Amino acid sequence: MNLLSLTTLVVGASLLVAVVYKTWYALCGPMARLPGPWHSKWTDAVMTSHWLRGSLCQYVHSLHERYGPTVRVGPNQVSIADLASVKSIYSTRETFIKADWYKNFMLDDQQNVFTAVGSDAHRRRRKLLAGPISDSSLRVHHDRVGKRVRLAVDGMRDEMASRGATDVLRWFTCLAADVVAELTFGLPLGMLERGQQHDECSRHLESAVQLGAWRTAFPRLVNLAWMLPFSIFRVAYESAREQTRIATNCLTQYKKLVDSGSKPETLFRNLYKAAEANEMTAKDICSEAELYFLAGSDTTANTLSYLVWAVSGHPKIQETLVSELRTLPAEGWDEARLRQLPYLDHVIQEALRLYGAAPAPLPRVVPAGGAEVGGYWLAEGTWVGTQAYTMHRDPTIFPDPRKFDPDRWEQPTKDMRDAFMPFGRGPRICLGQHLAAAELRLMTASFFLAFPDARMSSLEGMSDEDMGERNFFVMAPRGRRCLMEAASGLSEPPTTSEAAFVRTGVAGHGAWTHYSIGLAGRDGDGCGEGATVVDMEDAVGPPAKRRKRQPTTTKTTKTTATAPAGWHETYEAVRRMRSPGGLAHGAPVDTMGCERLADRQASAKDQRFQTLVALMLSSQTKDTVNAAAMHRLKTELPPFRPGATAGLTVDNVLAADPAVLNDLIYAVGFHNNKTKYLQQTAAVLRDNWDGDIPDTIAGLTALPGVGPKMAYLCLSAAWGRTEGIGVDVHVHRITNLWGWQQTRSPEETRRALEAWLPRDRWHEINSLLVGLGQVVCRPVGRRCGECELGQRGLCRAAKRS
């Protein structure tokens, strides 16, 4: 027998032994009797698939609904939903230690308090971190959190006034990230002051969470991302690197503060002391900083968004909550006072039950010698875990579990309290639970006092579908947005220089009541350090005395067929500023506007389709980002069949793998939804319009994801016909600032403008005002001192800038 034959024989025998053992273990092993789907005995591929799609929680929950409290979900994995077993698995004795699965979240093998598997390593880290972030220690930081909350509320109000709705998920993310940065490093990131998420920071925060899913599923592949042709691995890997860079920069800024003689009280004070004593390295602290950013930003923001959405969808709950909040003392209240409000607490607990940000399984390892769990004997080394998603939806513990019902917490049972685990359970429970609770209390109270009749907006197609649950260990709205609006409109703010007020207003129950957040018994901040743009714009007179409650006049849309006085002079001044050599010439829209992004070498039909796609991608997206995405689509979208031309055509969009299409437009806002809309639209065009785009407003607005603004702009750019004004947020915001109308949404603005603006101006007004809004009359940081309208007194809003 030669060497090759011997090797073949050994390999073959080894494979045979492996197959026999695998078959025996699946059919006769110690876990063979466990209930579960047939495939779980052989593979965990189905679990991995749901994990990567963000639907693992729902899948595991469906298995429990079918098979009971103990389910085999993989060859060596068991999910438990039995309360007695849960207490045993997550007991303080830590008999069941964390699974090695958590190590896959590490980058460069640098562990932190979350990824530490061994009990000793975890205890050392937790001992350093637990004290400063305990409930009692956090009280000294509540004023700082309160100031951040005020900035968020002011930003939301300003966005509602200009856009007609506000994306609370965006503002809550800015708030949570700023709070974590300020309390950890002494300085906020400044995301709230800029009025938007830091593009890079927010994008990497989101993708870094998805990285965890890919790392746990394919740890070796992600580590080799730079060698692989799949962009998902590269993006995930680069995102984690960027997150490290952000944390490193924050640590550098903190060191500068210390070197300058300022040493702010922070949540990392014990870590810094340990580093000074050479007990920790800079990499150790950086790893903990990355964890704090990830665990403290998206989690709180997502739960707050779900809370606001759920409450606003239940008018009776909303009315009860607002009524309780209005019992707060008008002279001011702090976080401690909020703890005395029972219904507020019930609402927050119910939001955490249904929409807690960390509902995924928390795997542990059966200890040496095996253990009985859920009535079954499990061999040592078996992974066993519980997910809060299922525990919180157990109908025997929470009757009618899918119903959002804060009243269930008025008299909670012992089982309810024991099953409630939104922050985990046992010695590994989330360190940041007390900070999250404080933020939830302060922001919930402030939001519903400021917007007592808030409701979900339908602007830009926002719907309950956007709030569908997606879970890459952290639960988030599927649409990555949560647009809210004030049902009765926004009443005018008071002219006051006191910045420490939450403003509230609802018809029939008092106008802008002043509430001082976290500063009870203190004077307002004034318009100096810490005042927001809105604060300074509103400070046009001396400080006003606290007003008595007066009935609010509900703001309604005012439209008229009469042209505003002086409109022509204003319009011509804008034209001059937008002309070559003018202050607003050369705006991004002038070179990268949607009407300029079609491939001029393509057929007329394809050019029209490309113009429509550019408009669909442009919503909530910068022109530079949109232009880059369009370039990738025109050059990289694969042909629908061999020999066909690559690029952006109806056939290529229809044939594209959604993942490939999504990858090409990943940088645009709400790219997941837009991927879906693009393929749905392409199907409609193929089936109903012979592959071309409609040439009517009715036909265009019937397409998925296309609203009136897009339709009018598309009809003009693609077909050369102007039948209406394309009103985006710039046109809506600026014309309201001028006082040309008082409207709550772009669509209302369109109708108001078309009632009087000469038809020959309809085509150009969008481009004129978008360019003005991008360069001069910006949403944040308006250049009124340089603007001709401000200099000549043609803009009434310029007086407050």
UniProtKB/TrEMBL annotation:
Keywords: 4Fe-4S, DNA damage, DNA repair, Glycosidase, Heme, Hydrolase, Iron, Iron-sulfur, Lyase, Metal-binding, Mitochondrion, Nucleus. This is Endonuclease III homolog. One of its GO terms (molecular function) is 4 iron, 4 sulfur cluster binding. The keyword Nucleus applies. Residues 540-562 are annotated as: Disordered. One of its GO terms (biological process) is nucleotide-excision repair. Gene3D superfamilies: Cytochrome P450, Helix-hairpin-Helix base-excision DNA repair enzymes (C-terminal), Hypothetical protein, domain 2. One of its GO terms (cellular component) is nucleus.
